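Continuing the series of single-chain predictions for the mutant panel. This is the parent chain; the variants come on the following pages.
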Amino acid sequence: MSASKQPFYAPIFFPIVNIIEAYKLSWKEVVVLPMKILGILNFPGYLTLVASSIRAAIFAYMAMYWVSEYPGFGTARTFELGWMMILVTRNLIFTLVMCGVWDWFLYFSPMKEKMHKYKITPKYPSNSQFWQDAKYTTLASLIAAGIEISLCHLWSRGLLSYHTDWWSSPYLNFAVLGTTTIWRSPHFYLIHRLMHPWRSPHLPDIGKFLYKHVHSLHHKSHNPTSWSGTSMHPVESFLYYSACFMPALAGLHPLITLTFIVDAGLSARTSHDGFTWPGSGNPFHMLHHSAFDCNYGNEQIPLDILFGTFAAKKGDIRKIWH
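Parent structure:
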């Protein structure tokens, strides 16, 4: 039978609902993976994005208020090891638990044989890839913490203004919070396309240079896992997490900025896990990892269709670059 699609609310309850569904499935079931890629989402797909944004907001709220006072509200006027290490430690623990536990369940737990039929690429990655991805994803989490530390300092010094009262603009705040994943989409397409060969006869191919020296590190994860999601060169990690500058520079509440950071990490790590439901992998982006010259963005805003870089299968790539 065909693999089932995830419920739209699944991201909010990740990974509990995924694990429960995996245990309910039959060991003997023969699965045909739904590999049709449309390049654009349907209505339930957009509801899933809202659920993903809500998930990020919940984790951001927990991360912001797990101590008595968030450093960005005044404590961070001076760079002191105490408050900075709280943010760094929080990021490292979250990364280790999220990627470590989820990859263990999919690839090493007693459930791995049952889950194998839902693997988008049947071959499993090598242990050396797991270790390399874990190293660079940990570094990416440190860079994300560095960005947050810098923003906290700017907020505390009054050098970067923000809405101090959440309830002064509740409709705007909740609207942005609930669509965080969608807001990040153009930013992701832009920086990602920038780091692939431009193939333009009219411009120097800066993308080819950036791919060779920066983005190629991420593509060493030919067979991605959760640890691969933010396994990036430090330059790319900074560019990727810089999506949070959009709400920060717009003067929105710091919770929204932190939600952008959390969503960037969570979405990358779940979408790279390599499995269809009850996994969280994204066949659209998995095709990019295996075929390289296509699908630079994602399906929530179909920029690949708009700019002619969409491929539903490997054979379509010849049509893009003919």
